[in-house]
């Protein structure tokens, strides 16, 4: 299955607690907790461009599977990491946070961020 497409967040679990734990300022947590983000993924072979729009904040990361690249974390930090792919799952580690993006079926994208046993999970549907 191809990740390419636009996805809108449908639901999320543990946003506020997780974002506090990673150091996101309270004002950004309050702004982001009720916003339904939109993710746009462009997949060309092993190259990906992922753009996530949450309210007025736009985060764009481009990477090639298996190659080290600079990625921007949700807190705005630039971090070198390697994104790996296993079937319909993309994984990366940024500043100790494990990121997993999984295409669970043709229209459902499940993202999970985990830090020290605490996770934030959100589910998006293809638009």
From TrEMBL:
Record GO terms (molecular function): lipid binding
Name this polypeptide is given: Cytosolic fatty-acid binding proteins domain-containing protein
UniProt record similarity statement: Belongs to the calycin superfamily. Fatty-acid binding protein (FABP) family.
Domain of life: Eukaryota
Signal peptide: none
Span of domain Cytosolic fatty-acid binding proteins: 5-22
Lineage of producing organism: Eukaryota, Metazoa, Chordata, Craniata, Vertebrata
Cross-referenced InterPro entries: Calycin, Fatty_acid-bd, ILBP
Gene: LOC110498564
């Amino acid at each position: 299955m191809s990740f390419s497409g636009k996805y809108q967040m449908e639901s999320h679990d543990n946003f506020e607690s997780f974002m506090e734990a990673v150091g996101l300022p309270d004002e950004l947590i309050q702004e982001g907790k009720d916003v339904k983000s939109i993710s746009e993924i462009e997949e060309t072979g092993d190259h990906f461009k992922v753009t996530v729009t949450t309210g007025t904040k736009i985060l764009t990361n481009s990477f090639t599977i298996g190659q080290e690249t600079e990625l921007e974390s949700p807190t705005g930090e630039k971090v070198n990491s390697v994104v790996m792919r296993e079937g319909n799952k993309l994984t990366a580690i940024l500043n100790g946070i494990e990121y997993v993006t999984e295409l669970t079926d043709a229209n459902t994208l499940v993202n999970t961020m985990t830090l020290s046993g605490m996770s934030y999970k959100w589910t998006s549907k293809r638009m």
